[in-house]
Structure formats: C-alpha cells, structure tokens
Amino acid sequence: MVNPTIVAVLVTCFTVIILMMTGLRIKGYGLITGITLGLLRAMWLSPFLLVLFPKNITLDQQQKRLPFKVSVYLDDSSSMTQENGTLTMARSHFVRAQKHTNKLHALCEKLGCVLQVKRASEEDRRFLDHVSPLRDLTNHITAKDPPFFILFTDGGAQEPYDILSQINNLRLLSPPQENPNNMKVKGLLVDMNNSQPKNVTVQNLRYEAIGFTDHNVSLDFDVYRSDRSHVSQTIQVQVEIADNRVAVQNVTFESHQQLMKSQIKLPLLAAGGHHLTITALPIPGEQETWDNTLSTSIEIIKPFNGVLHLVGSPNPDSRFMRRFLGLDPRFHVISFFILRDPWDIPSHDERDVSLIPFPVDQLFRHELPHFSVVVLQNFRLSEFLSPDHQNLLVDYVKNGGSLLFIGGPRALHYTDSHYSALAEIIPFTSTPQMSDDLFASQKNNTEPTPGAAWYNQDLTYSLVLNQSRHEYSPASSLFDALTPWQKQLTRSQLRGLHQTDEVVFRDYGYQRVIDAHLSSPSGTSQTLPFMMASYVEKGRIIWIYSDSLWRLAMDPDPLVSRSLYNGMINTVFRWLSRDEKTPFIWADNLKIKITRDANSKSLIAHTHLVGPGVKYLNDPQISFDTTLCGIKITQVKITSLSDQLASMTMTSQISGTDLSH
C-alpha cells in the first residue's frame, strides 16, 4: 500500500506539470488548440499516475477439509418398535427414526460430514430387555468425547411417557461451573413420542333452561378424548347439585373414537333454581382436569301456574301481555276480553253475536283460589263485578294471592278507588267530588276529576328507577332485577299515565319501584309513580299506572329493545309468584399465603366478593360460616367497596394436617 502523503505530492506535481504545459501550448498555438493539446498530454501521462492505485484481486480456492463426524444412535427398545402398545413396525417410532436418519445422510453429503449410525443396544444390551437406560447411555457416549451425537428415543421401554422426565438431568452440556461462558452442546436428543397428552373434556351442553317438577330434565352433552388409541375406554360422567351427586352415566368409547354424544336424565327436582355441575372423571395419565367440568343453572317450576287475565277493553298493551303469557311455558292463561259494556243497547239478536258471556260467578266463587296471579288490565271492577265478587278478590289477595293491576282509560275510576272493595287495598285514598252528570259513572276515567286518579292520555314521560329503596323490604328483589335495565328505562318515551298528584298515598304497605319523569317546555319537571309494589297481609300486588308498556317493545330507539319489555314483565311475574332468585355472590381473584413462626402456622387469604348479594353481608341479622380448602376460617373481615363488590380477608390457624389439603 503506497503512502498517502507520497501519492498526494505526486498528484500535485503531475497537475502542476500539466497546467504549465497547457499554458505553453496556449501561448504558442492559441487558447482552443492549447487546451486541447494539454488534455491530450494529460491522457498520455495518466497511466503513469494509475500505477499509484493498484487493484487488489482475491481468489478463493477450495481446500479439502477433514470430514466432520456425527454419531447417530437409534433407541431400539420395545416401545420404539410399537405404536400405542401394538407391534406395528411400519408405523413405529423406530421406523420414523430411520427415515429421519436417511434425511441426515442426504444433508451430510452437502455439508461434507460423515454419519455413523448405531443402535442403542450395541452400546448397552439392556435396551433389548425392556429397559431404556438413557442416563447410562449418554454418560457412556459423552465419555468417549465424540464431536457430536444425536439420539432418537421416545424416553421409555414398556410405556411411552413424557421424555422430559427421563432426560431432564442428562449430562448433555459441559458443567456450567467449569466454563459458564463457553458451553458447547455435545449431543441432541430427539423425542420420537409424538402422542398428544391424555385429556378428557365435556363439551356442547344442551338442555331446556326451564323444567317442571313432574318431568325429568334431560342433559345432552359431548365427551371428547384426545387419545386416538385402538383400545376401547369407559369414562364416567357425574352430575352434582350442591355437592350432592344426583346422576351418573358411563360413556364408552370404541377404538379410534374421540367424540361421544351422551344424555343424562336427572331425577325429579324441587321447584326453584338449581346449579348443576357436570364432571367427567379424570383418566389415568391425565394432567389437565380443569376442562373436565361444565357448570350451568336450571330453573324448575311447578307444572301449573294459573293466570287469570281480565281485560276491560282490547288495546295494544293487552295484546302484548297476552302474547307474553302465551309464550311462557310457566303459565297456563285464561283470558277474557270485555267487548261490550253492560249498558250497551244491542243492535243484534243475542244468538247472532258470537260472544261468550263473562262467567264471573264461576271464576270468582269457585276458580279464583286456583290461580297464582290475577291480572286486571284496563279493567273497571264496579262495571263487571258485584260487591260480593269484589270482596272475594280482596280476600284472595289477603290470603296470599297475587294481583297485577295495569291502568288505562277504564281503570281506577273513582267508583272503584273510592266506593268499591278495591279501595281497601289500593295504596292511596281518593276524595272525588261528585259530578252532577247522572251518566258520569258510565264514562271512561279520562277527564280531570278533583281528588281522584284520572287517566291523562296525552301525558309524555320517561322512566327512572326509584332511588328510595328499602334493603329489607319484600320488594328489594324487584330493584335487584330491574337495575340492569336502568339505562334503557331512562331512554324510554311513553304516553298516557294516571295523574296521582291529587290523591293521598298511605304511610306504609307499599313501595315506589319505577317513577315517571315528566318534563315541560318551560324546563320544570315532575315525578309521578309509574310502578308500585304493595303487600297486603299475605298477598302481593303490583300497580302499573299506565297501559303504554307496549311502547317499550316498539320504541324506535335501538337501545330500547323488546327485551326491556320482556325483562320488566318477567321480573314482575317472578315477584308476584314468589319465584325471585336469591341474590348470588361469587369469589374472584383468590390469593392464599401461609405464614409460619416457631409455634404455629397461619393461613391468610384475600379475595373479592362480587354479585348483587354483597350488600347484604354486613347485615347484623345475617350469619355465615366460611371454609377454604376444608379449613374452617376463624376470622373474616369484609370491606364494602360498592353495592356489588367487597373485599374479604380470611385468617385462621392451621395444623400440619391442614396443609395436606
């Protein structure tokens, strides 16, 4: 390499010489001719200048290398020559290992290495005696210090098993304490046991969400096993309710079957909600058992929940109610739609009108106690029921019956709210001023009546859940069930409501559940009751002061769906039929810590409690026992974070036997 300084000096001198010669040529021959001659002279002298910049050319010549030796060992124990316990040499692990060895031969031809293939039994005869001494074999191989070796094995002789348990501590690497920064791999173990882990799962549970006390509930489900073995296998499936085994089914798999459909029939269950656990018992060798269990809930109801539905005049709200009751399998409905008033003058002969007479005496004197719920919808008692029948209805409620009263233009007429037997159970008192009109009692309740609850058909409003709830009242479950619909309620737009601002509500025996929020163009707002729950002696009553619930199902707002109507009516009937569910609680994010000192051991656990039943935990009238992994907890501290969230800390002294859990 020429010194750069010398190169710079020579280039400078060359440039100066060229410029001087060019100047002489310009002086003797003129500007153009002189410059041309100077350039030609520079081109003639440039080869001498290029000598200072030689071109380096590197030639690579292939040299013959010494072959790199790789030793390959084939585990030829019995498990390598079988598949799933059956001698099938054509598909065995050993045959597949030989195919991999042939591929290594072709690879070594390209890389210039030499492959030496041996059977493991050539190094240790115990491989032929149903034994796989992998540790001794690898120790023997590494002791000879080969350049590199590969061992094809499945890890076992009699039964293939997880190879990691066999090779976890094999000395394939040089000890790290000798040279931790220069660890060289001496060998490679190739796992030929490609079988999937044994696993059983319960999938695709199918059942009817509602059952009856006089019918067996059937559970259809699929049982899946990951093992594709040739042998048949029987797996037991158990169904438990509240830790009590109620049904058992044996599911038998034939050879090569992975999926079996099965069905279990449960015994007759009591009415109410039941939490079911379907579990497939683990099979030998199964490690993951979390997916062996499915949990679900089922509701069992009585086979006959009679509902008497009386409608004073057909309207959209009554049709929606009739459709809801007709589609619900819990109810057997008898409906009567009043199409003609008693004082109507018929224009046709009675034989020409296909109307069924209202069997009021048969219903109220003989059949009324057999109904679970009576629905009076836009119905006027004084118009169709005699005082004796009205008293029978009031006695039905007091003796434990349930009444759903839905308002409308005909409902809550002052002849009912003030003069009939219904006034005894209505949650308000009215003081109507008598009209001079002799036919006022035959008119609809749509005209303003001082001191009475008249029906304003033009009143528009939205719904809001009442906030003055009482935690321990019979209606508290209504609030729990309606709380998820609170946002949709506020977006609703209804029309038509009973004006109850001139009546006096009683001091006890009822609770406002949903209010109607009225807004005027002037910005003032007013709140009137929309739904109330009252409890008269043993009975329950729901009062809905409107016949516009059907507008919830037909609301154009996409966030106010038909499910809001169905959810509200379903909640009302659950409460009236005393079928409301007990508020549930579940534990989330459980953390357990064991502390030890010289004399004792303590268990400290922390978890979050979630669910609508959380708000009842701090009630001094409620007591409960807590156990964790079979250990009875002696100290429990609950800190309420919200209505449906609390933090719980559990502490208990434990013994040595408790730790075995």
Describe the structure in your own words.
The chain is an alpha/beta fold and 661 residues long. It is 24% helix and 31% strand. The strands form 8 sheets. The protein has a 9-stranded mixed β-sheet, sandwiched between helices. Strands 8-14-13-10-11 form a 5-stranded mixed β-sheet, with no helix packed on it. β5, α6 (164-167) and β6 form a beta-alpha-beta unit.
Characteristics:
9-stranded mixed beta sheet; 661 residues; 31 strands; alpha/beta
Provide a concise account of the structure shown.
The chain is α/β, with parallel strands linked by helices. The chain is 24% helix and 31% strand.
Helix-strand blueprint:
Elements lengths: L3 H26 L1 H20 L17 E7 L7 E2 L2 E2 L5 H19 L1 E7 H4 L10 H10 L5 E5 L10 H4 L19 E5 L8 E7 L3 E3 L5 E8 L7 E9 L2 E10 L5 E7 L6 E9 L12 E9 L3 E7 L4 H12 L3 E7 L22 H8 L5 E5 L3 H4 L2 H12 L3 E5 L7 H4 L10 E2 L24 E12 L10 H7 L3 H6 L2 E6 L4 E2 L4 E10 L5 E12 L2 E6 L5 H4 L8 H15 L9 E11 L4 E10 L16 E2 L2 E2 L2 E8 L2 E10 L1 H4 L2
Parallel strand pairs: 1-4, 1-5, 5-6, 8-14, 15-16, 15-17, 17-18, 18-25
Antiparallel strand pairs: 2-3, 7-9, 9-12, 10-11, 10-13, 13-14, 19-22, 20-21, 20-23, 23-24, 24-25, 26-27, 27-31, 28-29, 30-31
Helix pairs in contact: 1-2, 12-15
